[in-house]
Design brief:
By secondary structure, the protein is an alpha+beta fold. The chain is 32% helix and 24% strand. A hairpin with a 2-residue loop joins strand 11 and strand 12. The longest helix has 20 residues, at 140-159.
C-alpha cells in the first residue's frame, strides 16, 4: 500500500511542551490532545473537553515498566477528573476526539476495544486494564470510518512520542532496508538472539535467548539493567518473552551476551555482514 506525505498541525499551549499539546491532521476531523496530569484543570476550560472520545493514561509500574490504560468516555474531561481522584498510576494522558463531536457511545466503545488490542499486540507497554473492553456491533460504514480514524490517531500519538500502538516489524514482513533488516547474535554461554533496528533504537525480539551468566568485566549499570529485565518479567528463564526496544544496538548486544559489547560489530545479518558495515555502505550510497 502506497504511503502519502502528511501535514500535522501542533499547538503547544503556553509554550510548554511538557504541558498541553493539541494535534490535528490535514483533511481529518479528529483531534488529539496530550495533557499532563497537572493540566487537566486547564484542559477542562476548553469547549471540546466534554466531547465523546477515547483516552490513554501513561505511567510506570513498581518495576519501572511503562504502562498504559485504554478508556472511553461520553464526556472526556469528566472521566479524567474521576481518574485524578481514583488512580495515581499515570502522569500523562492522550485524549482523542472528533472536532465536530460526531463520535457516539458505540463508536468510542469500538475504538477502545481496537486500541486495547493494538497495545496488547504491540507489546511495548504493559496494558493495565483489568478487563478486555467489549466491542459493539456497528455498521460496515462505521467500521470503515473508524478504521481510518484509528490510523490517523495512531500517527499523531506516535508523533507525540508514545509508541504503545506500534508493532515491531521484521525484515521478512516489511522489506529488507536497514531499518527493518533482521540481525542475529549467537555467542558463548547460550546467547542466541534476533533483533532489528527501529526508529527509536534496537529491538531484541521475542524468544531471543540471553547468555546464562555474565562476565566479571561487565559494567555494573549493564548488570543492573539485565536484572531489572529479569525481575520485571521481560526475560524469563533467560528468554525474552516479548519484544524489547533498547536505546542502542550495543546495549542490546551487551544484555544478550552478558558482557560489554559493540553492537555494531556483534549484530550480523543472514549473510554475516555486520550492522556497522551495512550502515557504512548506506552512507556511501548517499
Amino acid at each position: 500500500m502506497k504511503s502519502f506525505d502528511k501535514t500535522i498541525q501542533m499547538y503547544i499551549f503556553e509554550g510548554n511542551p511538557n504541558g498541553r499539546i493539541m494535534c490535528e491532521l490535514s483533511n481529518w476531523n479528529g483531534r488529539v490532545y496530550k495533557i499532563s496530569r497537572g493540566d487537566i484543570s486547564d484542559f477542562s476550560k476548553r469547549e471540546d473537553a466534554d466531547n465523546t472520545g477515547v483516552y490513554f493514561l501513561f505511567g510506570k509500574n513498581a518495576e519501572g515498566n511503562d504502562t498504559i490504560y485504554v478508556g472511553e468516555a461520553e464526556r472526556i474531561v469528566t472521566r479524567l477528573k474521576q481518574h485524578l481522584k481514583d488512580t495515581e498510576y499515570w502522569n500523562d494522558c492522550i485524549a482523542v476526539i472528533s472536532k465536530d463531536n460526531l463520535l457516539n457511545k458505540a463508536h468510542v466503545k469500538f475504538l477502545e476495544n481496537k486500541f486495547y488490542q493494538l497495545a496488547k499486540d504491540a507489546n511495548r507497554t504493559d496494558v493495565i486494564n483489568s478487563t478486555i473492553p467489549t466491542c459493539p456491533s456497528i455498521s460496515e460504514y462505521d467500521v470503515a470510518m473508524l478504521d481510518e480514524f484509528i490510523e490517523n490517531a495512531k500517527m499523531l500519538v506516535n508523533t507525540l512520542g508514545y509508541k504503545s500502538f506500534d508493532v515491531l516489524m521484521t525484515g521478512a514482513e516489511e522489506g529488507t532496508d536497514i531499518e527493518n533488516e533482521v540481525f542475529h547474535i549467537k555467542a558463548a554461554r547460550g546467547a542466541d538472539a534476533i533483533g532489528i533496528t527501529t526508529s527509536d533504537g534496537f529491538a531484541v525480539l521475542k524468544n531471543s535467548q540471553i547468555a546464562n551468566s555474565t562476565t566479571p568485566s561487565m559494567s555494573e549499570s549493564l548488570i543492573k539493567l539485565r536484572n531489572k529485565l529479569i525481575h520485571s518479567g521481560t526475560i524469563v528463564d533467560e528468554v525474552f518473552i516479548k519484544d524489547y526496544v533498547f536505546t542502542s544496538p550495543s546495549l542490546a548486544a551487551a544484555i544478550v551476551m552478558g558482557r560489554n559489547a559493540n553492537g555494531r560489530t556483534e549484530w550480523k545479518n543472514k549473510e554475516g555482514i555486520t550492522l556497522k558495515d551495512i550502515e557504512e555502505r548506506e552512507i556511501e550510497n548517499i
